[in-house]
Amino acid sequence: MAEKATPSSERAEKPTREPRAGARPSARSFISRIVSDPNTPPAVYLLCGYPGDSAKDGHTRFYVSLDLSVWVDVPDDAVIHVEEVGDRESELQPVMAWIRQDAQVLYGNRWFR
């Protein structure tokens, strides 16, 4: 038997969470892996791409698009942290990599080598 529709005026509204005075959000776990001292957060830049093998030893190549036409080769010791983005079941999901700003990265593309 089908349920009888309840008019919207009779539906119970979801209770809203009121912010508590003095409530503070908890730090995300990836922050604690990147920032060891809140007084001196590291100088990093964020790279979003698809990691792969680099032609240069000791580096990881991050393709910045799915057509694999543009990439950045990053020294392995300059990668501070990597997080997978989106559905971990799909190989088409990029990663976000926090890279030291002083790293000597190598930019490349398939048109100019």
Note down, in words, how this protein is organized.
The chain has a six-stranded antiparallel beta sheet. The protein has 113 residues and is mainly beta. The model has no long low-confidence stretch (mean pLDDT 83). The longest helix is centred in the first third of the chain and has 6 residues, at 29-34. The chain has a domain at 42-113. 7% of the residues are buried. It is globular and about 55 Å long. The chain is 5% helix and 33% strand.
Please identify the structural class as seen in this structure: mainly beta
Strand order of the largest sheet: 4-5-1-2-3-6
Model regions low in confidence, pLDDT < 50 over at least 5 residues: none
Cα end-to-end separation: 69 Å
Q: Portion of residues in helices?
A: under 10%
| Whole-number mean pLDDT | 83
Number of helical elements: 1
Number of strands: 6
Strand fraction: 25-35%
Quick one: overall form?
A: globular
Radius of gyration: 22 Å
The topology string of helices and strands comes to HEEEEEE
What's the story with the biggest beta sheet? Answer: 6 strands, antiparallel
SSE layout and pairing:
Elements: H1 29-34, E1 44-53, E2 59-63, E3 70-75, E4 79-84, E5 95-100, E6 106-109
Antiparallel strand pairs: 1-2, 1-5, 2-3, 3-6, 4-5
In short:
By secondary structure, the protein is mainly β. It has one helix spanning 29-34; strands spanning 44-53, 59-63, 70-75, 79-84, 95-100, 106-109.
Q: Could you list some keywords that capture this structure?
A:
single chain, 113 residues, mainly beta, 6 strands, 5% helix, globular
